[in-house]
Input
Amino acid sequence: MDATKHLDDPTLSRDSLPLASLPPPSLPPKDTPPPSRGPNPLFTSHSPTHTHGAKPSTASNDPEQDAGASHTPSLLWTDRHPCYPHPNQHVPLTSPLYSTTRIIRIPRDWMLVGDLAPTFSNTYPEILSPWVSEQDFRTLVQKLNDGLIKAVDPWSIRNWLDAFLGLATGWIWEDLGLTSARKGIRQVEQMLEDWNVQRRKAGSDGDDELVRVIGLRKTAYMTLDFQIPDPKIGGISSSAEQLVSRPETAHRPPIAEDVTASERPDRGS
Output
């Protein structure tokens, strides 16, 4: 039986045919171009030009200008902006300072010593320029970081000695406040208070008296807060909305948990 008879016989399957009887596979013509692939959605939908909701930039004839523009991050005016005026959460809602002052938050800088000590960024927010100069700001942050690193450095000999004395005395040494870490923290807090006193003495008008640094204990050493007069640049909602701690649930309809027992239908009826 030749190859054509094998192929025409319906009782035989392709797997049972000998290899010599199978026809050669059909190949595309040599001039046929390969199939084109469309854009990969994993890369087109998350391109750097659309990061943070920024509009895609138009290409120019200057390649250097395009290269610099592609690496320039777009920073929106949100509460993560370094110059964003936050509401003053360190005063009561009924205090006049809540409506006349704002907070500029200096974040932690984890690149200095990691998590061995709380250190803060020395990036100067220009919104402080009417009240605190860049030199004064950097000097304060430098002294603050140096004092905190010296106070809580876990590898210093004095802190090792304090740990041994605390273990030997059943932690009474630490309860009495005789450790170097507590002494260094008190010195840092006193330095901030002295800075506030000097600012009040050097102030020429009423706005300068409102400028102060919030104690680190109130921010849990997570941010360095500067209290400044309200710069009136937006970003804060109206006073009526500020009094609502959760505006998204302030005017919601009542749910099942809000219905009292008297209003619920009797299950026995």
The chain is about 35% helix and 5% strand. The chain has a mean pLDDT of 74. The CA atoms of residues 49 and 56 lie 5 Å apart. Strands lie at 86-87, 101-107, 212-213, 223-229.
